[in-house]
Amino acid sequence: MFLGSVEEALSYGANAFMIYTGAPQNTVRKSTSKLNIEAGRKRMEEAGLSLDHVIVHAPYIMNLANGDPRKRAFAVEFLTKEIERTAAIGAKQIVLHPGAHVKQGVDIAIDYIVEGLNKVIANTADKDVKIALETMAGKGTEVGRTFEELQRIIAGVTDDSRISVCFDTCHTHDAGYATKDDFDAVIAEFDRIIGKDRISVFHVNDSKNPRGASKDRHENIGLGYLGFDALNYIVHHPDFIDVPKILETPYVTDSDASKDKVHPPYKYEIAMFRAGVYDPNYIEAIRSN
How far, in Å, are 12, 38, 94 from residue 35 at the CA level? Predict the structure, then answer.
């Protein structure tokens, strides 16, 4: 539960972490009274962690852009409940994949997403929780692969103070942005279109694919097409020092062929970013421990 998430984050040396309030692939949810929230918050206080650096991720089963009105109504209802659960934990933002247009076109999808977000925000008007729209890789019919698409959504939301952006390094790279070679130019473009102050969280991931592949396949830090130096520059960028950075890199298996045992890489990847130095042997170190 929440206490376990706090302890796990501390075991990695993290000062920020992301959680789901239940399995991301289904609607099964325990009551917040059973999530061990008070104990988790107490442990955070003891460790000097801030609730501002706890990020909730919305489940993947919702699609505010679905052409079926019943499925859109479900998405509104479930996202409303997830925001209520986020507020119960004390977290201040929930990351949301904007939606997929399922071949009805981006324009219709954006209209549906805006309609859904307006309903959710009205339903949760008393909750101090921002909805962080994630930059998407453009896989399938995903909406939000361009900054312009995200801005169109934001512009349509009545209370846009409740909307922020989650900047995913793998996704923007896979969507075709020069995240590796010229992050400052990418941010300048983002600032012109949306405003960089809207970025409230980063997902820091390497990518298994070349720029513009639209694949959305995360890689461990330094092993992909973005590389350690580019990601380290982003992590330490002076414009975003106080913005939480979340790793979504893959677990490491005992060997390339074996999937029997997996190891979280986060302790090692966090240590490399803190030191600003890449260790080319860190995957083997993870496997040996």
Answer: 21, 9, 17
